[in-house]
Structures are given as structure tokens and as C-alpha cells.
Design a protein that fits this description.
- The protein is an alpha/beta fold and about 220 residues long.
- Helix 2 packs parallel to helix 4.
- About 20% of the residues are buried.
- It contains eight helices and twelve strands.
- Helix 1 links the parallel strand 1 (about 1-5) and strand 2.
- The strands form four sheets. The chain has a five-stranded parallel sheet with strand order 2-1-6-5-8, sandwiched between helices.
- It is about 30% helix and about 25% strand.
- The protein is elongated.
């Protein structure tokens, strides 16, 4: 699966994907992440990507031209592609969407900045407009990272087999979470209190362990 991020500051994103599981997944060619500077698709000598809004207002607005040219240039022919734009007024990104995106060959992620983006990008270029929560950020860089990590981890081989992933996903597209513990069996706090691992997990009885986990599993719905 291929991810393309359009951003004004590639250097802020690149380091994130050079470490850990995501870096390994790229080396093993399970996923392909490309980070592009939007200024590459400008047509003036100063590489201007923004301008003042019609009708007046605060701040500068990203222009449609560079974004349009970038998206058209990056779209892979004969591949299923979705163009994603980030905005607080978009639909909230969730596990169900992450699952659906794994069926796409390419995601092009548009990271906005400044006061906003020309509305025609919303109307005519983006397939999905996403929000990662009811708050505003200075750019779409972090949301793009969130989407790639959330979708990328679902690609078979990135963190495990398809069967392992299915264990944590419910039939409605949400996911399951239950408490987990590791050594030591007893941890003593500064105040001398002992925090213990539940005895069921130490019993070696697989049925008891299964029942304990099921009784404490939280279903996170999408």
C-alpha cells in the first residue's frame, strides 16, 4: 500500500517514519510512504502556495493550483486511490475507516496549514475530509501521521498476521481492548503498597485466562 503526504514542511514528518515498526515495514516493502513538498507544484519563481482570501479575513489561504497539480501528478494509474483532506469540520477518523482504507491501493493525504485551504479543494479534489478530533491544529501533518500509523498497522505482516489483527477487531469495525500485565508479579510503590498481577493470569489455566479477559474486554465502537 502506498501513502503520499503533501505538506509544506516535510522535515517535520520524515523522522517519524524512520524508526520502529513503520520503518521496518517500509524496508520490507509492505508499505510505501512518500512525503512531498507542495511547493514543488508551484509555477512562480518564489514557489508561492498561499494567497489572501477573497472577501477579506485573517491569515492566508492555500491555493487550489499547486494542490490540484500535485494530486494529479501523484495519482497512480490503474490503482484505486483516495484523496484525503484534514479539517475540524470533517468526519471523525475511526477504526472502521482505517479498516476500509486497507482495501485502497493509494492514499494521498493533503496537509493544510495557515488559515485554511481554498474551498474548491474540499468540493472537487478531496474524496474524504477527515478530523482527528474536535479541536484545531496548526497543520494536517499530525493527522496524516495518525492515519498512516492506524492504517499501516492493519496491513498483514506489519505487526502480525491477519489472524492476529482480527483478534482485536470486532465485527462492526471497532476494536477490543483488555488489561494486560507483565513482570514483576508484585510491584511495590514508594508508599509501600503492593500492586499485584491478577491471580487468574498466573494460573496457567487457559480457560480461566480467557474468561478473565472476556469479562474485562472493552469494545471500542466506531
Amino acid at each position: 500500500m502506498r501513502f503520499d503526504i503533501l505538506t509544506l514542511f516535510p522535515s517535520t514528518i520524515i523522522p517519524f517514519f524512520q524508526e520502529g515498526i513503520i520503518a521496518r515495514a517500509q524496508k520490507e516493502k509492505l508499505i510505501d510512504i512518500k512525503i512531498h513538498n507542495l511547493r514543488k507544484w508551484t509555477t512562480d519563481k518564489h514557489n508561492v502556495v498561499d494567497d489572501k482570501p477573497y472577501g477579506g479575513g485573517r491569515g492566508m489561504i492555500l491555493k487550489i493550483g499547486p494542490i490540484f497539480r500535485a494530486v494529479e501528478s501523484l495519482k497512480q494509474k490503474k490503482k484505486q486511490t483516495k484523496v484525503i483532506l484534514f479539517s475540524p469540520r470533517g468526519k471523525v477518523f475511526n477504526q472502521s475507516l482505517a479498516n476500509n482504507y486497507t482495501k485502497i491501493d493509494q492514499l494521498i493525504l493533503i496537509s493544510g496549514r495557515y488559515e485554511g485551504i481554498d474551498e474548491r479543494v474540499f468540493q472537487y479534489i478531496a474524496d474524504d475530509v477527515l478530523s482527528v478530533g474536535n479541536y484545531t491544529l496548526m497543520s494536517g501533518d499530525l493527522p496524516a501521521i495518525i492515519v498512516i500509523e492506524s492504517v499501516g498497522r492493519l496491513i498483514e505482516g506489519v505487526i502480525g498476521s491477519e489472524e492476529e489483527i482480527k483478534e482485536r477487531v470486532n465485527s462492526r469495525g471497532g476494536f477490543k481492548e483488555y488489561p494486560q500485565y507483565t513482570r514483576p508479579e508484585v510491584f511495590t510503590s514508594i508508599k509501600g503498597k503492593e500492586w499485584k498481577v491478577p491471580p487468574e493470569l498466573l494460573s496457567g489455566d487457559h480457560q480461566k485466562i480467557k474468561q478473565w479477559r472476556e469479562s474485562r474486554t472493552q469494545i471500542i465502537e466506531s
